[in-house]
Amino acid sequence: MFKIFFATPDKKIISDAELEEITLPAHAGELNILPGHTPLMTTLSAGILKYKLKNGQSDTLAISWGYCQVSSDGVTVLAETAVHANEIDIKVIEEHLKQNENKMLNESLDDAAWEKVQHEISRLRAEVDIVQIKH
């Protein structure tokens, strides 16, 4: 059986369910994984993660940075954050996005601060995207 384990530091999203397909925002681009996929390990970028189970259940979440490991047994996803569209207050997210974009344009940031703001912008854009997909 090809199973999925998907968790963040705060919650377990799903575990030990038989996976039919998963699409992930890998660092080098979107990655679609089916049973029998070649084993791999990759970093994940902020974006949309979709999976479908053998029982027909499916789910779509916005994730931020993380890791994905594919083995002959299944897929393990560890993400920094994972949220459903119904958990997002779009007005709050858009305001945070605007603030961070202004910070990038108007403030002098060192490399570490620039990377932190860029990471936050990527996460916020993924959350805006998932809300737009669901509506």
Provide structural commentary.
The protein is an alpha+beta fold. The chain folds into 2 domains: 3-83, F0F1 ATP synthase delta/epsilon subunit, N-terminal (ATP Synthase, domain 1, Sandwich); 85-134, Single alpha-helices involved in coiled-coils or other helix-helix interfaces (Up-down Bundle), CATH 1.20.5. It is built from 2 helices and 9 strands, in the order E-E-E-E-E-E-E-E-E-H-H. The protein has helices spanning 90-106, 111-134; strands at 3-7, 12-26, 29-33, 40-44, 47-53, 58-63, 66-71, 74-79, 82-83. Strands 1, 2, 3, 4, 5, 6, 7, 8 and 9 form a 9-stranded mixed sheet that branches. It is globular, with a radius of gyration of 16 Å. The termini are far apart. The model has no long low-confidence stretch (mean pLDDT 94).
Explain the layout of strands and helices:
Elements: E1 3-7, E2 12-26, E3 29-33, E4 40-44, E5 47-53, E6 58-63, E7 66-71, E8 74-79, E9 82-83, H1 90-106, H2 111-134
Parallel strand pairs: 1-8
Antiparallel strand pairs: 1-2, 2-3, 2-5, 4-7, 5-6, 6-9, 7-8
Helix pairs in contact: 1-2
Core attributes:
single chain, 135 residues, alpha+beta, ATP Synthase, domain 1, 2 domains, 9-stranded mixed β-sheet, 9 strands
* SS element count, helices: 2
Report the top-level CATH class of the largest domain: Mainly Beta
Tell me the major beta sheet: 9 strands, mixed
Tell me what portion of residues adopts beta-strand conformation: 35-45%
**Total tally of structural domains:** 2
